[in-house]
Amino acid sequence: MFGFLRGRLILVRIILLAAALTLIAIGIATIYAVGHPAQAGPGSKTGDLGGFWEKQAQFAVLGILGFLFVNLFNYRYFGAVSYWLYALVLILLAVVLLGRFVNLSFVPAINGTHRWIQFTIGGRGLPAIQPSEFCKLVYVLALAWYLRYRSNYSRFTALVGPFALTLLPMVLILLEPNLGTVLLMMPVLFTMLFVAGAKIKHLLIIILLAILASPVLWHFMEDYQRTRISCVLLQYDWIRSQAEQHPTFAQILVGRHKKYSTAQWKNDWGYHLIRSKYAIASGGATGYGFLKGPFVKYNFLPERHNDFIFSIIAHQWGFLGCVGLLGLYAIIIACGLEIAGNNIDPFGRLLAIGIAAVFAVEVIVNVSMSVGLMPITGLTMPLVSYGGSSLVVSMSLIGLLNNVGRCRPFTVAPKSFE
Hints:
This protein is mainly α.
């Protein structure tokens, strides 16, 4: 029986790795398509992304090294040091936040945000590190390690611990500002609490309190945060007409310091969303094909190699291509659930569930913001979007899933791990 289970998990791990590598290949090919100047038409501005696919290939190598590294040790060793890793990431997040108020040469401002740490050697910049991406990895590790004991979630007051683990990095990340990672953490927390065995009534009470507090949070939001969320509603003609006719309603949507106009929404606040939907819709059932299509040849859609790479994939390969892409993510999530279901170690089971939840939430949020169902948050498509930190962390998470499936689960945790 154990031999059958072992063989089954080996097959699951092979499928898991194959799906991850296929997604990486799709990402590199898409970044190559939008940045390769050889296929650009007159007036194209794809040349500014010309070398990005090569960098992404280099990041992929680093990601594979991350995959191999996390498999050098039993996954429970990472649990034993997870709090130290968590503290290190908090320090890095604090440094990034400090760079917003103090001029730190190694914390550059990119697109008005401070999210990266980048050092230079001999006048040459090293690859930038995004601490909020690494927070996903250590957060899941630390939370799974904390929730391995039932006493840490069985009572309502005991939920203070896991929520404190979540809120500390959330506040630091939100102040960068970075809304995407913040939206990721709460669903992962509730998923892991539910699987761990927290009482549903306790979770429902917390959700109810959050809903009751939402008007207060909305009141204290910055105007740019309001417009980012309101853009989802402003897609509808009736909402836009009401905002134009009722200034008070418009102030609620976009803030007190902005005057609403439909023209400004189309050319500013909703520009990315409108272009993203055009790119997806124009792909039809089968798309324009590789290296083809106006949204590939021309820079009609900002961040098409990163946040909106799903829109470019839909533009090139259509609905069928999107189904195939999402099918690969479904395979990764299913493998995570299979590994979790066959592990008797509470930490290993929760770690696998947490990783599966991270991928599920990232994909859902990225696709939803691309089609206008959720606010544009900057949360990337894992393994596909351009970015070194994102790719390395995603492959390290895949590596941890493989590690949980590879290591024989303990019936009793060794004392050296406690």
